[in-house]
Specification:
single chain, 210 residues, alpha+beta, NADH Oxidase, four-stranded antiparallel β-sheet, 9 helices, globular
Length: 210
């Protein structure tokens, strides 16, 4: 318990990264696997995640990120892109995965599949997109906490021009939309933000026990 709270106190939204320090392949795989194992509604994971290390691509994305230096200085840029629209294939692909992973005949999953489809397929397109984007944030939180456990710094970023990201990464044709970006790497000694006390609501303000 002590380490859990210490790691969450240690992490902050890093404003300046040390561009000379890179996350190792081993640690990156741990972060990505922690993200892959993240919860999502119905287990559907209606998103795709892009891991960007190419410096030229990062340079292109920086102007679309309000010029923030995290984009070019961080070791990795993780782009979380939600599925903008979907049909039966989202559920069918998941059920096929369940059948293979758990060695269950797909016929035995039809009832669950029909239930999911009844709840999701008739939603308006805008509602579908809003729902898939919310699933992204569950994965984002899991990646950030896993990084804190490894003493790897992160900075979640919504200060971006989503449509420009989509254009640069070719997402629109893939039925994807940039929802949020996470810079991953190691803090610079020059980042004064790391010395600030963490500001949060008190327990009394935040929690109600019923």
């Amino acid at each position: 318990m002590k380490n859990i709270l210490e790691n969450r106190t240690w992490r902050y939204a890093t404003k300046k990264f040390d561009h000379t320090k890179k996350v190792s392949d081993h640690d990156l795989e741990l972060l990505l696997e922690a993200t892959r194992l993240s919860a999502s509604s119905y287990g559907l994971q209606p998103y795709h995640i892009f891991v960007i290390t190419d410096q030229e691509t990062k340079e292109k994305l920086r102007p679309a990120s309000w010029g923030q230096s995290q984009i070019t200085d961080a070791s990795h840029i993780i782009v979380f892109a939600n599925v903008t629209d979907f049909g039966e294939e989202l559920v069918d692909d998941y059920l096929e995965n369940v059948s293979t992973t758990r060695n269950i005949p797909e016929e035995g999953l039809k009832g669950y599949g029909d239930f999911m489809k009844s709840k999701l397929l008739d939603l308006p397109a805008q509602t579908k997109s809003a729902w898939t984007s919310r699933q992204v944030y569950i994965a984002l939180g899991n990646l950030m906490q896993a990084a804190a456990e490894l003493k790897i710094d992160t900075c979640p970023m919504e200060g971006i021009e989503n449509e420009v990201y989509n254009e640069i990464l070719g997402l629109t044709d893939k039925n994807l939309n940039t929802a949020v970006v996470l810079a991953v790497g190691y803090r610079s000694e020059k980042d004064e933000t790391q010395h600030y006390s963490k500001v949060r609501k008190t327990r009394e303000e935040l929690f109600s026990h019923i």
